[in-house]
Amino acid sequence: MSDIPYRDVDVQGEKPGGRLMEESYLGEKFSIWSWLTTTDHKRIGILYLLSTTLFFFIGGAAATLIRLELFTPAGDLLTDDGYNKVFTLHGVVMVWFFLVPVIPSVLGNFLIPLMLGAKDLAFPRLNLMSWYLNIIGGGFAVWAMLAGGVDTGWTFYTPYSTAFANSHVSLTAIGVFISGFSTIATGVNMIVTVHTMRPPGMGWFRMPLFVWAIYATSLIMLLSTPVLAMVLTLLVTERLLGLGIFDPNRGGDPILFQHLFWFYSHPAVYIMILPGMGVVTEVITCFSRRRVFGYAAMVYALLAIAVIGFFVWGHHMFTSGQSMYASLTFSFLSFIVAVPSAIKVFNWIATMYRGQITFEASMLYAMGFVGLFTMGGLTGLFLASVPVDLHLHDTYFVVAHFHYIMVGGMVSAFFAGLHFWWPKITGRLYPETAAQIAALLMFFGFNLTFFPQYILGNIGMPRRYHAYPDAFQVWHVLSSAGAVILAAAYLMPLGYLVWSLIWGKRAPSNPWRASGLEWETDSPPPKHNFLTNPTIEGSVYDYHPAQEPRREPADD
Amino acid sequence: MTEAHATTAASANHATVSPALASHFHDLRQQHAAADLGLWIFLATEILFFGGLFAAYLVYAVLYPDGFLEAAAETEIVIGTINTALLLTSGLAAALAVKAAGADMRRSVMVLIAVTIGLGVVFLGAKGYEYWLDLGHHLYPTSPDFPLAAPPAKLFWSLYWMMTGLHAVHILVGLGTWGVVLFQTFRRSFSLTDNSRVRIAGLYWGFVDVMWLFIWPLLYLMGRAT
Prior knowledge:
A: 17 helices
């Protein structure tokens, strides 16, 4: 803990006396009321950081119960009903109250105006409202949990959810519905900000790729979330008012629910990964000291994923009885969406190639992201192929696949971004060694937890069962053991990041010598972000200017 | 070139400093662009929201064409058509109010908004009367005396209540928005030309009108096609 390694301070970037001119956004007012009524995008980002952390630990507690239950073959810790409620809670909270908001609303909120040299997002009050909607929606979900829970799984499949489930389906669905408005508000804000508030000199193709990633994510949020809102409305009115859109007794079709649900929920998978891609691009370019490889290709890949992602939803329904031709089309389109994803992976690797790589904690997280995302993506291709999916559908293979994307990908990326911008957000440096240990621990813990689940799925362990034959136990024990390591790796940052708030060294304005406008202002930034309007010079990723050649090959 | 651009923007800012300009925008033009784009994007989400419902309608109308035609013949076409005329007229008033606001004609804006609100309220009244008639005919899917035999008829009537109900909610939101804008115009609490409030409310109202133009043929006209 004694020596905190950070790159040499860029003295030229400091504006002497700058801090005296305007108080930082943290120091301006201290009362709780000033935080709860703030329209400052930076403070709202912090509010989101606190709330998503809380939801992460609620969802994490449910995951702990799941892994404890599955340690032994017998269903001894939880009843079958209790188990259903626990995994539903885990899914609902993690998807809608952690993964969807975490990067766009925490890092995106904090960074988008800074990266664009703007004073705030376009609609500051709407931004605050989105946080309250998120909290109210989450409140409904937690209320449903305390009132007895929901047992439908996070997918709310009909007819079970409409005709049979006696648990608090409507309450949870209303909570998710409300949080959907929060997502839409964030999406509108981000798109309008990027369109109308870019500084002079920053054309579309000179924006940081994190901004592009948030832009593409916002497009998906805006065009998919309303469909979720509609399908949940139909679900709740069917339960409460008896309007039977999905009820087979009235000619309705439960499969229509699946179509509408996955029309949202498959694009939602990209809501939960594109922001991570943006973070990782910033981190990898910085710690490789390299201009990003194929900037335009990275942009088009993001947009291609966002667009094609809308036409692959049927790959969740290969076994639902949809027409064979539909299945084949969806299968083909799902393979197509792998192309832009692969372009991004290749470009990250090409960016690192012959770079001057250093292994700060955020770089370790980012490199972990690239590996785990690749594994998750490749196993996605297994599932996109119809005959293989018929074997693996609803098994632990699927669970492992999407956890590699969501947890291995998005959560790693979030930690990468949180560490990378922590000095900017708080004005403090975190202890590097502890953070590096946590990053490695998370990588190994994650693989130990979820790799056995691929094998479990392939040998036939279905999802959502609380008891299983003895033959599966060894893999479940490995998985649960990994979960213990993973839990430790998640708790460590909570410890040392909070520690750094009080005892951490004060951060200079650009501790990583990174490019990007957000590093040109103080750490933490003043209330209005920039004391003088920042100027755009050179390209975004000017890590090795053209007139300054890299080392000769002989030196390598 | 960038610096020249920045300085002209800054001087323009000093010349036209308006109380309507929020501190995080450079000038009113940027602020108006943001407000307009924001609402247009929001309307895109609304289209997707109703789109889910129209998709459900389309699927079932293709699956059960006869049942849907039979069920659709039971809707109150006279009220539905009068309501269409009322809503389109209110849309005209709203559009004129937006024009008048651009020309800073405060009294005209107030009169036109009042007409818009009045027509909207009459629309809701007629809709309520229609609902009362529908309930009297047991045309709701949970009714034990539901008059139509074919199961798809209940699907049609489920969609009827969802579509018209959600549309009525949007009308209510629109009327509330117009109410606030009218009150603020009356109090002179914002500048008609520097502020986009009237235009934003008008855009939203236009969307609500257009949605009805899809609902009216689907629910009222279709049953009369045979």
